[in-house]
Amino acid sequence: MNSMRALLDGGIPLVAVSFDDDEAALRAEEAKAAGVDVAELRVDRFSRTGADHVLAQVEAFKALPILATLRSTREGGEWAGTEEERLELFRALAPRVDAVDIELSSREILSEVIAAAHGNDTVVIVSYHNFEFTPSTEELQAVIDDAKTAGADVVKVSAMVTSESDVRRLASLLLRAGEDGTRLIVIAMGETGAVSRVFFPALGSRITYSFFGTSSAPGQLDFSETFGLLRKFYPDFNQRKIVEM
Predict the structure, then answer these.
(1) In this predicted structure, what is the pLDDT of residue 129?
(2) Three-state secondary structure along 61-105?
(3) pLDDT tens digits, 56-96
(4) pLDDT of residue 217
(5) Of 62, 118, 129, 232, which residue is the catalytic one?
(6) Is the pTM of this model over 0.85?
(7) Which residue ranges of the chain lie beneath pLDDT 70?
(8) How far is the first Cα of the chain from the last one, in angstroms, to the nearest whole number?
(9) Cα–Cα distance between 146 and 152 in angstroms, integer?
(10) Is 232 an active-site residue?
């Protein structure tokens, strides 16, 4: 069984850390020793994106569940190739990773990426990012419904917040999802939304994202801080780490 799928359904928060291809083997050892749950490989930020190079980085992180992300520029990423090239790389990655992240807005290749992933028992996170504001509840729910219809195993919603009401609006998505079993990752970006990184998992957000070194998104907490807070507030998470480490 896909190890990522089992973790997502385990009811315990997961911490993902994003990595590029700089000193991958060293970073992979560091991540494993530190207690990282998921290694997100930000392939769009790799120095080279040829399949051989990318798959070598995947091999370096094989001791951890791997999430492969090839983020488009329209949603804050750095993918510089064509959509056809991105699709082919997703197809190459699908048998070798535990999960992939594809934006809902990537309509040209969305269905094919999902089909490639599902053909290899790979989890599909269909994501939506808004770096300007938090849309209305109705708009966000429409995004979630659209992503589920497309075939998402997990829907990721990440929006910039400027007020506590924005944070509550995003939290309400998790409360609603808990009623119908929808797997969500919800992130409130920005300084006001930092609370979401630690407490949205209590409402059912499946993964919280952190970093070593330099933050990759507004409002992220570094790994050591995130890890410590999760161990403090989530006894099951703490117990899992005691067993693992």
Answers:
(1) 97
(2) CCCCCEEEECCCHHHCCCCCCCHHHHHHHHHHHCCCCCEEEEECC
(3) 999 999 999 999 999 999 999 999 999 999 999 999 999 99
(4) 78
(5) 129
(6) yes
(7) 1
(8) 23
(9) 9
(10) no
| Whether 129 is catalytic | yes
DSSP assignment string, 122-147: -EEEEEEEESS----HHHHHHHHHHH
* Token duo for residue 115: 């089909």
φ/ψ of 9, rounded to 5, equals: -95, 10
Structure token pair of residue 88: 């082919």
Confidence (pLDDT) at 47: 95
Tokens of 4: 């990522």
* Domains of the chain with CATH codes: 3-232 (3.20.20.70)
In this predicted structure, what is the pLDDT of residue 87?
98
> 133 by DSSP, 3-state: which?
coil
Residue type, 205: S
Compute how many other C-beta atoms are within 10 angstroms of the C-beta atom of residue 125.
Answer: 25
Catalytic residue among 53, 156, 232, 241: 156
